[in-house]
Amino acid sequence: MHITQGTFSYLPELTDEEITKQIEYCLENNWPLSVEFTDDPHPRNLYWDMWGLPMFDLHDAAGVLMEVNACREAYPEHYIKLNAYDARHTRQTTALSFLVNRPSTEPGFRLDRQEGADRSVRYNLHSYATEQPAGERYGPDNSAASKNQNGKSGKTGKSGKDSQD
């Protein structure tokens, strides 16, 4: 599954050169930038962890990209996004936001249906990533993608059948 959050979510991954062009565009519009990261990409998870402080006084695209790369190095298996803020209307509003890093494996989501009184139907979105504790959600041995919906391992043994832990 490919998480689609942010401005360029339906385009192929941006290269560092393309990210730099977007940073330059933001700086030309006097939009300060900040870097955020998370291991819970649920669409309603609006509060990602901030990498450092917002870069209100930084006016060099190379400096912003350096912060992005430092966050990538520290959290290579997390979602990392770059936010640009527009303060022209005396309040901070997000002018631009896009992902600059993804984990190597994106486990995806499940839609749970709940039927209630009077034939009402509600749906809940369940992120497979949250089946693991924070900080262990993306990794080679603790990947939520290696588990199926029943919580059993999806690894196959020599016989080719699913082994159950």
Average pLDDT, to the nearest integer? Answer: 77
Return the string of H and E elements.
Answer: HEEHEEEE
Oligomer: single chain
Roughly how many Å is the radius of gyration? 19 Å
Major sheet summary line: 4 strands, antiparallel
Classify the beta-strand content into a percent band: 25-35%
SS-based structural class?
alpha+beta
Low-confidence stretches: 141-165
Q: How many helix segments?
A: 2
Which term fits the overall shape? globular
SSE layout and pairing:
Elements: H1 16-28, E1 33-38, E2 49-55, H2 61-74, E3 79-86, E4 93-101, E5 109-115, E6 121-127
Antiparallel strand pairs: 1-2, 1-3, 3-4, 5-6
Helix pairs in contact: 1-2
Provide structural commentary.
The chain has 165 residues and is an alpha+beta fold. The chain has helices at 16-28, 61-74; strands spanning 33-38, 49-55, 79-86, 93-101, 109-115, 121-127. It has a 4-stranded antiparallel beta sheet with strand order 2-1-3-4. Helix 1 crosses helix 2 (61-74).
